[in-house]
């Protein structure tokens, strides 16, 4: 879902809601003409050749950036990260929780605030191991554990 973002160049204020003095009728027409799926040529499956996925990342001390929004200095080993993510995988597969619910509190990626949603991406935009795993999934399918330079991931394809 792409939401419009509003920026006031005079005040440098940014927000997700339109300004109070905005003409909402004009705004609706503008959005329909310039940002609808027909206007952009994007259908509900996203850009041609792109997919949408969510992920849960567990970093370790050998990750390319061993810090996150949760921990300034990550000291766990790769083996510990794999053990942790296996536990998350079991919870998701048992149906006791979802990847999105876990990502909010447990993912070391800043996408946690969006339930792990990375939006649409195409080939060449992600690390190769991540891309290969994500593109091999069908919508709704959960990957096995995927190792990248960032850490260990569980990936769920959305679209």
Task: Please tell me the overall pLDDT.
Answer: 85
Order of helices and strands: EEHHEHHEHEE
Number of helices: 5
The portion of residues assigned to helices is 25-40%
Q: Biggest sheet: strands, sense, closure? A: 4 strands, antiparallel
What is the highest CATH level, the class of the largest domain? Alpha Beta
- The termini sit apart by 12 Å
Q: Which spans have pLDDT < 50 for at least 5 consecutive residues?
A: 39-46
Neighbour order of strands in the largest sheet: 4-3-6-5
CATH fold name of the largest domain: Chitinase A, domain 3
Tally the beta strands.
6
The CATH architecture designation of the largest domain is: Roll
Quick structural overview:
By secondary structure, the protein is of the alpha+beta class. Helix content is 31%, strand content 18%.
Which features would summarize this protein structure in a list?
159 residues, alpha+beta, Chitinase A, domain 3, 2 domains, four-stranded antiparallel beta sheet, two-stranded antiparallel sheet
What can you tell me about this protein's structure?
The chain is an alpha+beta fold. The chain has two domains: 6-40, no CATH class; 51-157, Chitinase A, domain 3 (Roll). It is built from five helices and six strands, in the order ββααβααβαββ. The protein has helices spanning 24-35, 37-40, 78-94, 99-106, 128-136; strands at residues 6-8, 13-15, 51-58, 117-121, 146-148, 151-157. The chain has a four-stranded antiparallel sheet with strand order 4-3-6-5, sandwiched between helices. A two-stranded antiparallel ribbon has the order 1-2. A hairpin with a 4-residue loop joins β1 and β2 (13-15). The longest helix is centred in the middle third of the chain and has 17 residues, at 78-94. It starts with 5 loop residues before the first strand and ends with a strand. 23% of the residues are buried. Residues 39-46 have low confidence and may be disordered.
